[in-house]
Design brief:
This protein has 152 residues and is an alpha/beta fold. The chain contains six helices and five strands, in the order αββααβαβαβα. The longest helix is centred in the N-terminal third of the chain and has 21 residues.
Length: 152
């Protein structure tokens, strides 16, 4: 009999997919943030930062993923979905997460400079739960390595 996957195992599995998106961003010269949106046990959207590519300051991974998921589901509310993102969302993205009514947010590394938890901790929908620190070291290291390589 096969064991059921724990919530932690599932969170790590989907965060690894978000990390793949972050690596794609890095490879394209974008700040390495990746996101996936899941409903049930299925990824319905995946995205990474496109701010440089699109010359659009709003083209964060979360914003791209929310738009893609809404298109996939045919509606603007993502009430049965979970967002996995490698970096703590900024205030702008937290607002979009709140408006889309995502039920759960899981992020890897905290963002002390721009993260929503410091500036707008109540921006998410009241029913949204947040899980932090999933694969935190891998997520943080990807960002650290990216910015270190930019300074050289």
């Amino acid at each position: 009999m096969q064991e059921q996957e724990t919530i932690q195992q599932k969170d790590e599995r989907f965060m690894r997919r978000a990390l793949q998106e972050a690596e794609a961003a890095r490879d394209a010269g974008e700040i390495p943030v990746g996101a996936v949106i899941v409903t049930g046990d299925r990824i319905i959207a995946r995205a990474h930062n496109l701010t440089e590519t699109l010359l659009d300051v709003t083209a964060h991974a979360e914003m791209q993923a929310i738009t893609s998921a809404a298109n996939q589901l045919g509606g603007k509310y993502l009430t049965d979905c979970t967002l996995y993102v490698t970096l703590e969302p900024c205030v702008m993205c937290a607002g979009a997460i709140g408006w889309s009514q995502l039920r759960r947010v899981v992020y890897g590394a905290s963002d002390e400079k721009r993260g929503f938890m410091k500036f707008a901790p109540k921006a998410l929908h009241p029913k949204c739960t947040v899980t932090t620190g999933v694969l935190e070291e891998e997520c943080r290291q990807l960002m650290t390595d990216f910015f270190r390589s930019r300074r050289c």
